[in-house]
Amino acid sequence: MKYLSSFIIRPRLLLLISAACFLQQGFSSRQKPSALTIQQADTVIHKAKKIPVANGMFLSFSDLHFDPFSFQGITDTLLHSPVEQWAGIFEAAAKSQGLGGYGNDVNYNLFISAVQKMKRVNPHPDFIVMSGDFISHDFGLNFQSATGIYNSDTLFGFIRKTIGFVTSTIEKYFPGISLFPVLGNNDSYCGDYQGETSGIFFKQIAQMWYPLVKKNVNARAFRESFYNGGYYEARNPADSAHTILVLNTVLYSSSYDALKYPNYCSRSKPDSAGILQMAWLKNQLRRNRAQGKKVWILSHVPPGINAYASSGGPGSCTDNISGFWKDSLNQVYLKLLASYKDVVQLTMAGHTHMDNFQLFLDSNYTAYNFIHLTPSISPIFNNNPAFQEISYIKGSAAWKDYTTWFLPDMGDTTHADPWQKEYSFGDIYGETMITAQSLKRAFLKIYLDTATRKNYMRFYNTGNTYQPAINGRNFLAYWCSIGYLNAAGYGDCACGIAAKPKLFTNQNKP
To answer: What is the rounded distance in angstroms from the CA atom of residue 322 to the CA atom of residue 496?
Structure first.
């Protein structure tokens, strides 16, 4: 028995010896440990078990642009009916309608098809992000055309009903799931890019959206900030110790308060709202840093350069450069995020309708953050309808991967489920995590590798190969907008001022 007991103990001793050798090899000759404790060895043994990390999933969609006028002849019925009856009214008209087509916003059939597919992909997501633009383009003009009514109060009531129908429908399919809504440039009583700050719209929409986020916000703080400018703070379900900051970046848009857009509120909008929001954002970042928390920032209009508007214009390349935001506010924001690179974990936006990303690079071209751009449900800009499922690590909220689901044929009436998986980021770019560094590798690979570039160009407008957004002539204009978020850097990259983008140094090649 004496020898038997010694034999039974030896496997643990062998493990300890193996662990000691493992640690010994991990140090250089100048850093060898003097001794290995039982606790250190047990730590190595514990790590060797490779305890699986729990993954979470959430859904992300953007730019729904629901169009209640797409089924002709029912607008008056909708106008005089409570929102609770709208689904039945649409269903009665939907049988003779399809899913719509390119150049149009989202009709009822496409909306329901998209939500049902989200439900099939993930019936119980941890939460949902909607990155803005709930209602269709030219909403006020279409309302006047369909009804002959030019009364602003009646229009405002119909806008409120439409947003209420969209949000209640999502709630119906995902009961009890937190939805983080973001205001888009079309989400307004006053018109496109005409959000009325501290007005009745923000108060009424705040009351409508509060139930969607109430598990994750302080009610008083939510109302105060949303009333002021349509922004708010929330607890991040991906990691309860972290924070989500939802911004109203329409206030920063270069098109905000532009005279070319209709203004049904008949008064100008003060720029002070954007300044107040920026001060609020800085205060939130400071407070989260002091509390040791990480932050996600959600918005609709991203910072940086509008590649579509900046390419193919009549003037010179540099004359055509157009930013999404007013330049002064864009610079302030970029400096702020650089100052809080230890706090802001990632950012999300929509608005472009395309599947894309942007990078925050410092002066040495080191990537320290990124913007994930969610593609749109609306096919109005000749993109296929799409949404995404994003996986993350619970406890750190770090992203692992995302999958894009798309509708490749809106004329397909033969299949009960015409939606398909388009691609997963990890499969295409060979990365196991989504970080600023992995996205920078993808960014460089898109430029250097022909196959990767073709994939990026195809996925950009979610697979519409008949009308591709990016081609050989404008590729550089779009590619440069990923990594250069100010006009000077973008011009240096896209306009041929530099023979080759400066970030291509030996250490930056993938």
So the answer is: 17
Span between the terminal Cα atoms of the chain, in Å = 61
Element of type H or E holding 393: strand 386-393
The vertex-90 CA angle with 87 and 95, nearest 5°, equals 125
Joined together, the tokens standing for residue 348 give 């999300």
Question: For residues 76 and 66, what is the distance between their CA atoms, to the nearest angstrom?
Answer: 17
Distances in Å between the Cα of 66 and the Cα atoms of 58, 404, 491 are: 22, 20, 36
What confidence tens digit (pLDDT) does each residue in 314-341 have?
Answer: 778 899 999 999 999 999 999 999 999 9
Q: Which residue(s) pair with 434 in the sheet? A: 399
Are 339 and 282 contacting, i.e. CB atoms less than 8 angstroms apart?
Answer: no
DSSP label at residue 298:
E
Q: Cα separation of 372 and 365, whole Å?
A: 19
Query: Hey, is 235 helix, strand or coil?
Result: strand
Rounded alpha-carbon distances, angstroms, from residue 373 to 30, 56, 304, 350 = 47, 20, 12, 5
Q: Are strands 243-246 and 295-298 parallel, antiparallel or unpaired?
A: parallel
Q: List the structure tokens of 28.
A: 């250089």
Tell me which residue of 319, 352, 353 sits closest to 494, measured CA to CA: 319
Residue 13 in contact with residue 6, Cβ under 8 Å? Answer: no
- Which residue(s) pair with 388 in the sheet? 60, 404
pLDDT digits (tens, 9 = 90+) for 278-289: 999 999 999 999
Cα 159 from Cα 143, distance rounded (Å): 9
Q: Is the pLDDT reported for residue 510 higher than 90?
A: no
